[in-house]
Amino acid sequence: MSVHVLQLIGAIVAALGTGVWASATWARWRGSQRILADEPSSDAAAMARASIRQHLHAVLLWLVVFVVAVVRGLTASATDMTGTWVAMVALIPPAWITVIQARRGSEDGRLFLTRLRLDQRAQEVIAQESEVTAKWTDRLVPAFMEEVDDLEFGRASHAGAGLVTGDFLDVVPLGHGRCALVIGDATGHGVDASISAFQSKYVLRSYLRRFRDPAQVLDELNEHLGASSGPEDLLSVLVAIVDTEQGTLRYASAGHCTNLALVERELVILRSTGPLLMLDRNAHYASREVAFGTEDLLLLYTDGLVEARNSSNTQFGTERIGQHLRREATSAAEVLAKSLLDSAVDHASGQLNDDLTVLAVRRK
Fold first, then answer.
1. Closest by alpha carbon to 308, among 337, 270, 341?
2. C-alpha triplet 14, 19, 25: angle, nearest 5°
3. What is the domain extent for residue 153?
4. What is the edge-to-edge ordering of all strands in the sheet holding 167-175?
5. Are residues 192 and 250 in the same domain?
6. What single string gives the DSSP state of each residue in 9-72?
7. Measured distance CA(170)–CA(181) in Å, rounded
8. In 10 A of CB 135, how many CB atoms?
């Protein structure tokens, strides 16, 4: 077999290799067009571009081999048999891979496009879940408080390890200078706890407009919710009603953690006045009343703030919260809430696993 025949065979093999890889590249490019056009910055689009680049690389390599084979066939000496055989042997591995690609090209392309579509669908689902979670959380812990005459609000929150929060807060104007402030926490985690919190928040709104005393509101809510089917269903709730005409703060707490008020520069501790909701359907709650004048502060929060722990397993605790409240007494309510959250995050070195919600209220 002459040198020129071998060179011709090499050129034919290189041409076939170029064609096979060019066809596969075209199929990948055509199948990826929708993903590249709709979501050019997505992971699926990046994977598609990477695969197309790899196939183009193979096309270019085979094209170079073809050009070299043609040039050598036209210029090589008839006696250069050794170099020609070496070149032909070197073509065997890539030629074998190309044969496999030719046999499996359509199946590989189908699997590749299926994977791209699955990745794209997964990203769409994740984006939808994130949007739903954000909207649900905003219903439970709204980013903006309703404006109420003579009251200034500030809020801060931190999402725990769960997909959705079990904390909730609400501001409900009642007219005639009265405004209800609600904060609560479902004892469980996940979707069930969040549903309980959501239900309780909106049932509470109805009762707050029917009953003046926060203790009676909790009595009615506890009876409405019924007995718990398990410890994950229990709820802690604190309801406070500020009356700016009378200059009073009246509250009732269903097993909620100790909250604080700063009245005439003195700390007032708002302790629980009854058990957790749904612990006992026949439970009754008491209410307490304190003065609440101009520039006084009310600080409502969930137990995630109190129980934030550092590396030594030391809780952030009520004492630190009280010290922070005294120190930031002249700050805006928004600044007070956010700085308190930042202090808890620093204390725990950023490792907060529980939901945490803070509502600061200043009487103007």
1. 341
2. 125
3. 141-363
4. 167-175, 178-186, 235-243, 248-254, 288-291
5. yes
6. HHHHHHHHHHHHHHHHHHHHHHHTHHHHHH-TTSHHHHHHHHHHHHHHHHHHHHHHHHHHHHHH
7. 6
8. 9
pTM over 0.70: no
Residue 329, both tokens: 């007494």
- Which of 128-142, 165-179, 287-301 is the most confident on average? 287-301
List the one residue out of 318, 25, 7, 354 whose CA is nearest residue 162: 354
The count of domains in the chain is 2
- Tokens at 161, concatenated: 């390890």
Distance (Å) of CA 74 to CA 17, 61, 69, 77: 20, 20, 9, 9
Higher-confidence position of 125 and 113: 113
- Residues 241, 125, single domain; the answer is no
Structure tokens at 27: 């199929």
Q: How far is CA 227 from the centre of its chain?
A: 32
Q: Which residues contact 181 (CB under 8 A, 6 or more apart)?
A: 169, 170, 171, 172, 239, 240, 241, 242, 298, 300, 359, 361
Place of tokens 């807060």: 169
Contacts of 284 by beta carbon, 8 Å cutoff, 6+ apart: 215, 219, 274
- Of the candidates 60, 58, 75, the residue with the CA atom closest to the CA atom of residue 7: 75
Per residue in 53-111, pLDDT tens?
777 777 777 677 777 766 666 565 555 555 555 555 566 666 666 666 555 555 555 66
| Residues 102 and 231 reside in one and the same domain | no
